[in-house]
Amino acid sequence: MESSNTEKPGQIVILNGTPRSGKSSIADVIQNTFDGVWINMGVDRFMAMTPKRFQPGIGLRPGGERPDLEPLIVNLYEAMYESIAAHSRLGINVVVDVGHHDAYSIPRGILYACARRLTGLPVLFVGVRCPIEVIIERRLATWGSGLANDGSIPKPVRLWQQAVHTPGLYDMEVDTSVSSSEACAALIASRLRDGPPPSAFRKLETMFL
């Protein structure tokens, strides 16, 4: 009897962007409309599994506010990407919505280390863009707040916008301020179907060694 490990690896799609950029909505469309089984292993799922005393875990925002958590965050990201790799190797497709950044108290190189954990697997790395003005509108609509007391854009929001797309090396980018979640997912499907083959994670593997 042949081992299931001989199956073709499952496709991995990683959606990287700021909070409220629309990543989760795109992931939902992919999970519910793309052919085959797609498991959502994004940041919200892993934060929900993290004990309260270690929150926000991998959702820690830029700014170096919790250096005490940073070594754990490195390990949690490693564990998440090992899980992603395990699913792919068993032929299961994975969509990941995440907000990678390296604006910790010291550079941690998490994205590059994560890329190395997916060596040899099919990974499409998608930058999910959204102008900061639209992010603020969505924060207001969702939480009823989005601006600082003086009416300015809060520093954490500005830091997210600057840090999450560094180094900005993607296979493709989408902009949720001009395209719906369905349209963004359709662009991703087209890239997976028609190529060219993705290469961003292969390049990221060699960085921050």
UniProtKB/TrEMBL annotation:
SUPFAM superfamilies: P-loop containing nucleoside triphosphate hydrolases
InterPro entries: CPT, P-loop_NTPase
GO molecular function: ATP binding; transferase activity
Binding site for ATP: G17, T18, P19, R20, S21, G22, K23, S24
Keyword terms, alphabetized: Transferase
Residue positions of the active site: D44
Protein name: Chloramphenicol phosphotransferase
Lineage of the organism: Bacteria, Bacillati, Bacillota, Bacilli, Bacillales
